[in-house]
Fold this sequence. Notes:
By secondary structure, the chain is of the alpha/beta class.
Amino acid sequence: MLLFVGLGNLGKAYAGNRHNIGFMAVDAIARDSNAPAFRSRFQGLISEIALASERILLLKPETYMNQSGRAVGDALRYYKIDVGDVVVFHDELDLAPGKVRVKKGGGNAGHNGLKSVTAHIGNEYRRVRIGIGHPGDKALVHNYVLSDFAKSETPWVEALCVSIAANAALLAKGEDESFQNKIHHAMETAGLGKDGLF
Length: 198
């Protein structure tokens, strides 16, 4: 079994925030796989799907971003999931909007959700870093991540979430580089790469 975790803040007020793109990605995977309705468990909302012959637990922590690791730790211990089989989807300031990179371990770059996950389960989980761009000034970061995506950004956000969902089976198989490449190609094909978005 693998654990796919979307990071975000629960509630309508946060639903469209840049900080919630991890939730958006997991919701897109759930829709694409016709997942059962999310239900409350492990201090979060969970559902379960099958991808590439693997059982995948989908988790959206309800603890707010800076306590996300509590929910992740609870689910991991209950199902005895290896840390290397945890995949965390999160917003990434240091990547251009629409760029996606997958990595295992590494630093948390000031991301409070990642800090919490690392504190509860260790650092050797996989991260799907979803680029949201940087406001250009460190002092603006807090308001930037907690602001909604602009209407002009809707096309790339939606296209990216659809592409993440369509290629999630590659993550389940551990084919991280192929996953990245497929998404990059899909965004370029949609006119959102190179001379478009990035």
